Amino acid sequence: MIAADELKLFEASLRQAVERGSLDAALDDVGWFDAIASDPTIAAPVFAVQGELNIASSAIDDVVVAALGLPPSAATAVVMPAFGLHTPNTESVHGIGTRRLATATDAIFAVRIGRDVMVGRAPVASLTQQPIAGIDPAGGWVEVTAELTEGEAMPWRVAVKAAQRAIATELTAAARTMLQLAREHAVERIQFGRPIASFQAVRHKLAECLLAVEAAQATVDVAWSEPSEFASAMAKAVAGRSAKTVAKHAQQVLAGMGFTAEHPFHHYLKRTMVLDQLFGSGAAISEELGAAVLRNRRLPTILPL
Questions:
Q1: For residues 29 and 98, which has the higher predicted lDDT (pLDDT)?
Q2: What is the reported pLDDT for 25?
Q3: Do both 188 and 174 map to the same domain?
Q4: In Å, how far are 228, 288, 294, 301 from 297, measured between CA atoms?
Q5: Which of 30, 101, 177, 249 lies 20 to 30 A from 115 at CA?
Q6: Is residue 88 part of a domain?
Q7: Residues 266, 182: contact at Cβ < 8 Å?
Q8: How far is Cα 144 from Cα 132, in angstroms, rounded to an integer?
């Protein structure tokens, strides 16, 4: 496992590299494909940078491919389950892809065969693709469909776990940036002769944002240090809920400024709304975890936050 100080250095290098070009290009320059195949924790700083700077890449494809035990490469894309789901609910391919699908030759997908989730591979040319404009056109998301029903037994649950950790990291970083944007506005905005940051109502909203961000960060840290299925699911659920909390309060602090196209807040709001739906929404995961507790009649082990 890569040491914490080396991960910090890698994150700083990525942040500088992004200023000169795309994140995908920066990752290619630092040997990303070999790195993610040998140590999945290298994904943590990558998704932290994505969330902080509100940029998009196809790194999630490589996280999933590597977790399946396959060699990640620029030629391999992933068809993720439809929004809100972490496993397919149909016996054919219907899901979401990243911008990688525009240049890849092969696609990895999960398909439900009976009660089992199997993993298959198909040429990208055999898939039907439709760009998703929606609320986050800069994300490069693509809706994918295909009548493919064959697959083989591969560790899809391991791939889901890896993807949830990565996306939770991005959500948390984005939420922290939204909090920073709201704080800066509160300090600079003068009303009744003083900064609105001095008003108790504003301070309470910013405090709730900070609490939400720190809660998400704590669960994300646990998910990376002790990557169990439960910890990864909890990280995704808490990060999604925290991002919504921060977005709501930050919008109230920013007031009219938060609705303007010139202010960067709306980009983070839109991206987090989409990310919350990838590999299981926060609400759906929470419901699943609660149902599992009732079904097993046993509380899960408390996370060492």
A1: 98
A2: 86
A3: yes
A4: 20, 14, 5, 13
A5: 101
A6: yes
A7: no
A8: 10
pTM of the predicted model as reported, rounded to 2 decimal places: 0.94
| Conformation bin of residue 88: beta by default, left when phi > 0, alpha when psi is -120 to 50 | beta
Same domain, 162 and 270: yes
pLDDT, tens only, 191-212: 888 888 889 999 999 999 999 9
Average predicted confidence (pLDDT) for the chain: 91
Domain assignment of residue 47, given as a range = 1-67
Q: Please report which confidence band the pLDDT of residue 14 belongs to, taking 50, 70 and 90 as the band edges.
A: confident
Same domain for 225 and 136, yes or no, is no
Q: Are residues 188 and 275 in the same domain?
A: yes
CATH number at residue 200: 1.20.140.10
- Do 8 and 58 lie in one domain? The reply is yes
- If one counts the domains in the chain, the total is 3
- Give the rounded distance of the alpha carbon of 102 from its chain centre: 20
Measure CA 243 to chain center.
Answer: 11
81 pLDDT more than 90: yes
pLDDT of residue 242: 97
Report angle CA 164, 95, 242 to the nearest 5 degrees: 35
Residue after which a domain boundary falls, among 10, 34, 67: 67
User: What is the dihedral sign for C-alpha 85, 88, 94, 99?
Assistant: positive
What six digits make up the tokens of 33? 């494909």
Q: At what angle are helices 43-53 and 4-18 packed, to 10 degrees?
A: 40
* Domain's final residue, options 44, 67, 90: 67
